[in-house]
Amino acid sequence: MCGIVGYIGKDNGINLVLDGLEELEYRGYDSAGIAFINDPKSNVYKEVGEVKNLKKIVQKDKPNSNLIIGHTRWATHGKPSIVNAHPHFNSDRTIYVVHNGIIENYQEIKNRLIDQGYNFISETDSEVIPHLIDYYYSKTNNILESIKLALNDLVGTYALEIISTLTPQKLYLARLGSPLVIGIMKNGYITGSDKNVVLEHTSKATFLNDYDLAEVSLSKLKIINLKDKDSNPPKIELLENEKTGNDLGNFPDYMLKEIHDTPETIKLAVTGRINPKQGNVKLGGLDSVIKELEHIDRIIIVACGTSYYAGLVGEYLIEELANIPVEVVLASEFKYKKEPISRSACVIAISQSGETADTIAALNKVKDYGVLELGIVNSIGSSVARLTDAGVYCHAGTEKSVASTKAFISQVTILTLVALRLKKSPDKISRKILSELQALPQKIKTVLNLENQIKELAKRYKDYSNFLYIGRGYNYPAALEGALKLKEISYIHAEGFAAGEMKHGPLALIDSKFPTFAIATDGPLLEKTISNIEEIKARGGPVLAVATIGNKKLKKLVDDVIYIPKTLEQTSTQLIGVVLQLFAYYMAHELSKNIDKPRNLAKSVTVE
Ligand code: M6R
């Protein structure tokens, strides 16, 4: 987590860095800070809370600098406070550091430095870095050498940007396990943890690799790989400008805007990729691995959070349509699991951001296994996209709200395409599903028209402290996702269960104060879900259901029902997903929560 921005150039870059930090707020918003050099002086500003608070205090003083680093924090070690905010510095304030990642051996280094007379003011792991560089500077009298020696001592992960009054014309960057990109402008360099920071200013950039240490000055960009001891000329790439999604329009927040983006999201996911008449799917991103795909006999999907739940829908789709066994594993578990994986397996990583640390670690784990690695990623050029052999982009546009909405709808749609692509030969069901995917945007618009009804329901249900979400088959992962969405933004405790599991434990929770959100749309398992609802009603539990239009039986049985248009079982998650997203949204809205930036969370989970 945490966002980093840096600038070295001919102009005053203060506002450029502050704007970049705002762009990166999705990575953390506990506190923010900048440090800059105005040779021979340096200065640092820090503020608790969102970047706008920092902006206010900085812009009042109108400072001027062409060498700046900035940081927006998601607290790992130590609470959000001014002293714990980055940049951190040495006691003489000659070395400033911003850090994303975790230094696992920080306590050991801190103890060592304290023994040497060093003084620490924060509770963070990151503060050891400027002191360690300072320590090595006292031995070497050379900043670059001191940074190298310091990096050699660190165990953990980092994206680092460093400035020093001792080298007032240089910006240093280092990467191990957390992304950093250097944008090349006409009059300098803009750097950061995400290409979107750079894209505002230039499309020419270079990405650091693990163990890279960059020394950037106006006359030279030098990158050394500390592992290979190589100093190769930087590989300059032209960045693709994706739809940024920054424009809120008339929406009060990004989550609602992004839910309303979903009809377009589906169009963007399928455009140019499907031929409903023939039942064919063409995924250009998989062309290079067509031969390998023909031989896979097992798929392991790795992902976290909402992307994991999309993966579970993918399991139902791929197993049913392509007849290939699928396992969906939480990336945080997969990376430590000791299971046999043969070369005929294929690992698919699903990630909106493409920067989730656990998902990256899962891919890294199988790097040497000789298995095919695919990515389903939204963020173009992100780490997961770079690490995988091939993949399919979601093209959903930037998702800014922490709660994933349009990306989920897109991931499920892409997984449907992948399942049909892996199917040996297209048939009637392929054609039906593809035609239905084309019809989904209009059907989602019908669901979006239910907004007022859902808003009213949220008013009625907002005071419950617990919620159960249930479903069977394709509706089971939807139930899990519905529960995640509700807890994430409204802070109401919610759990998702396979409806068939109720009698195995969860039914004990049910009473008049414990409502259930039942996903009971048309499909072969509907009657079974209805039996589960009967059992909940018999025990006095309130039930709110989402059902397919025309189902009168459910109306009589449950307390409230939200009707969605008829669709296929295999395409129902997209419509149900939007209902669940709107419900969570309006519950959080009724409870006056900060919807786009829920407490304790960040959009991109770049630390373990
Ligand atoms: O960027 P990713 O898709 O890899 O992110 C995975 C999860 O962190 C993410 O889906 C998270 O669960 C969302 N905040 C849920 O709304």
Can you put this structure into words, describing what you see?
There is one protein chain. This protein has 20 helices and 26 strands. It folds into three domains: 2-238, Glutamine Phosphoribosylpyrophosphate, subunit 1, domain 1 (4-Layer Sandwich), CATH 3.60.20.10; 261-444, Rossmann fold; 450-608, Rossmann fold. The protein has 608 residues and is an alpha/beta fold. The radius of gyration is 26 Å and the shape is globular. The structure holds 5-amino-5-deoxy-1-O-phosphono-D-mannitol (M6R). The site of 5-amino-5-deoxy-1-O-phosphono-D-mannitol has 16 residues, from helix 10 and helix 17. Residues 304-307, 351-353, 356, 359, 402-404, 484, 488, 604-605 line the site of 5-amino-5-deoxy-1-O-phosphono-D-mannitol.
Identify the notable features of this structure and list them briefly:
single chain; 608 residues; alpha/beta; Rossmann fold; 3 domains
